[in-house]
Design goal:
Length: 733
Amino acid sequence: MSCAGWLRALKETARSGFKVERRRLEPWVAVRGAAGLAVVVGVAFALFGPGVAVSGAFGAFQAGIATLQRSWRPRPVLALASGASLAVSTFLGYLTGAHSGLFLLLLAVWTFLAGLAWTAGPAVGVIASSNVAIMLVTVTLPTSVAAAAGHAAVIAAGGLVQAAMIVLFPVRPWGLQRDALADALAAMGDYARRLRHDPTAPFDPEPLMAARSAAAVTPREARRRPVELHGARGLAERIRPVLASLADPAFGAAAEGPERDRVRELLAAAGSVLDSTARAVRGGAPVHLAPAALAALRTPDTETVLTGPARRAASRLAPLLEAVVDAAEHPAARESRERERTGPAHATPVGAHRDRPGLWRLLPLALRSARAELHHDSPILRHAVRVCAVTSAGYVLGAALPLGHGYWAPMTVVMVMRPDFSQTYGRSVARFGGTLVGVVLATGIVHATHPGTGVSIALAVLSAGLMYLLLRTGYAISQVFVSAYVVFLLDTAGEGVTQTVRDRVLLTLLGGLLAMAAYAVYPAWETPRLRARLADWLVTDGRYAAAVVAHYARPAGRPAGRPAGRPAPDVRETLLASREARIAWHAAETRASLEPVRHRGLSPEAADAADDALAQLARVAMLLEAHLPDRDAAPLPAAAGLAEALRHATERGAKAVRDGRVPRWDAVRDALDRWDDTAPPAESPDPALVRSGAGLLLDALEQLSRALAPERAPERAADAEAESEAEGGTGRR
């Protein structure tokens, strides 16, 4: 570490904390959340008074935030889970609040569990952290132990009301799932257009993986899911290798000439069709296709202009695009067509779907995930220890300082701390800035106007509504309205008038500094783990490539009746693993780029070059997948040896990457030499194409080795070469 590194890291994280993103706002969702909050506060205030009203308001407020998290679960379920968990937290806080030692123990246990909750996903982690923060506020309100159950019930009722509002006043049902599928289709359309100008253009599979995650539903959801969300994603997955193989000069059309011109027309038409389908899915509207795109796809000269693999890819493209449009067809149009065919429309039958466990089934899975993180090197465990220790310390310091309402310090700690460095530091700076603005404005309004209870409630609801509206535009902006909401709400109960702006800001600053110091003292840096992430990606890429190549050696192993272009189960499984490893690598690389630590042998330049190499390895495997032979095709025996060599060599290469050595690929090279010495069967489909692809796989692996071999360390590279040769010789024997 160095001072320059820390200064750079602080600058970058502060910039990310104050970043404002342009997101599509959903005003009706914000209005619905604010209306649910107003109902809870108004009824509780009228029946029980300001103290209970504040408790109910926090329950409804937190439930509203939970429904806005990036989660594929139904919004009412999130609201109910948030209200129930906050009610339990607050009830226990009330019971122990009168005894500082017991409450501190509860706070430590609760924050530790909230830290471990991140193993179940960001949405669960945010809800758990918010529960602790709100518990710190609500237990300071004047109440008795006998009233603890009543306050907890009102908090749970707040979650129930928000859930009821979602059911009674739905806004864009299945909106997140529609957006995920539309984003995947739009990304595929953009990919098709980029291939027109760059035949080897890269493709980020993250939109496809997000759409896949969104497609997981419970059996009940499967019966209610709109028909246009059923099958378009799987078809888009099959279109991607067809587009790539059509555009690539080595696997498709020639680089120049009539073939290339025809391919550009087809790619432009595909991009237009996919964009139109994406717009229809996002808005739940009929698909309107451009006449020019339809004309390009229906031009009859494709068979005469294109030859070989390019013709085969083009023949698959048009039916796949037609199937995508049909799968995304508007329900009204589909029902009209079905009535014409079969009479009155019936409910859409529930077929196979990706299963998503319900909350009760999720609990044992979450417990197993948490147990798996109980080791010293786990970032989640380190986060749980940090947040537990620092929140407890913040509570003690806040109570000891003569500032009053010291919960602002531990509340800041638990809200800003995250398992990674960049988010913790960025949120700490953003929370301080947002709190400063929000507290100054809200406290200034309170002291200048002395609003009555009704006006304070209205201002609190307005602040919550603005926070709901702008939550996804940036953390600093949301904190302005969160801070104002807390000030106005506490003023309703008479709890906020005794604390000054200076006290609140100083305690928030104290909490942020404690969170930042804790990460510096007990970090969980991503930079030292980059080689392990890269090795994981290499292993999964190797297994994917090996699975594809193996099917050329055993075409009969493909499932009977499987349509052309649809991957075999083992190919699909390894492809998904490769994508997950790629996404994990990119996320880790992004986090590491903001950390103030040395690269430990994997410089940013080497990481970028290795990224390009593994992306090329996966791309070539995908191109080979696009031309997998049918079950009745003649086998290509040489492919079996190459598949085995790829699998074992990438596993050994991954071990070398983890150990800081340069991997070598002698086993793969030897397999290709044996391939060249063996004449392929005359009836084998495109043996030259497969052999060319195999050579490109080796080129990508050697590109990875060059990326990881430092030019200024020849002696280290020589040692690694000698050791790798010994391993390769053992493998050949």
